[in-house]
Design goal:
Length: about 70
């Protein structure tokens, strides 16, 4: 949870400034949100691939017995 807030803090700040003060920061908030989303997607895919690579045999055995 702390990592999520930490990664999205700049985007949240830009969005807050856009709403409360100056709308010229809207593009920065949009770009920051997209960049944060792509970064988190990449981290998730990489972490999932590592876990699957290490535990693929156990996962496949579980999937075969559960079905």
């Amino acid at each position: 949870m702390v990592g999520t807030v930490g990664l999205s803090a700049p985007t949240l700040w830009w969005a807050g400034v856009t709403v409360t003060r100056d709308t010229s920061f809207a593009l920065a908030a949009l770009a920051g949100g997209i960049a944060t989303g792509v970064l988190v997607l990449g981290i998730g895919l990489t972490a999932g691939a590592v876990v699957f690579e290490r535990r693929s045999s156990a996962l496949m055995e579980f999937a075969e017995t559960a079905a």
